[in-house]
Amino acid sequence: MKFSFENLEVYQRAIKFNLVIDDILKREGVTRTLADQLSRAAISIPLNIAEGNGRWHKGDKRQFFWIARGSAFECIPAIEILSLKNAISGQEKDSLRSDLEVIGRMLTKLAQAQDGRSQSLSRLNTQTKYP
């Protein structure tokens, strides 16, 4: 049985983002503190998407989607630090930032959909496509 949130493109992207982050954090030269913070922020994204989808009230759902978006933004300075420490290449940095930009936009639309200010959730699942 598949849960409905597993069909969300934003959830799938957040899971893939976590796999990339996990591989990066295994590299030499990444401090434990930075690895812990980035790991927690990255995993918070799909966890909050899942928890939000498990909530009954739209306001609760919306709040978890905003939290997930905040966690995506929290990853940006950690990625910048990894880049400054030469733990990731410029291309990796750009790719990670691009992934987070898309995830952030999708989470904004998902949160807004709870108020009826954006596309319906079912349309978000099937029609919202990002590069």
From TrEMBL:
SUPFAM superfamilies on file: IVS-encoded protein-like (SSF158446)
Record-linked PANTHER family: FOUR HELIX BUNDLE PROTEIN
Protein name according to UniProt: Four helix bundle protein
Species assigned in the record: Bdellovibrio bacteriovorus
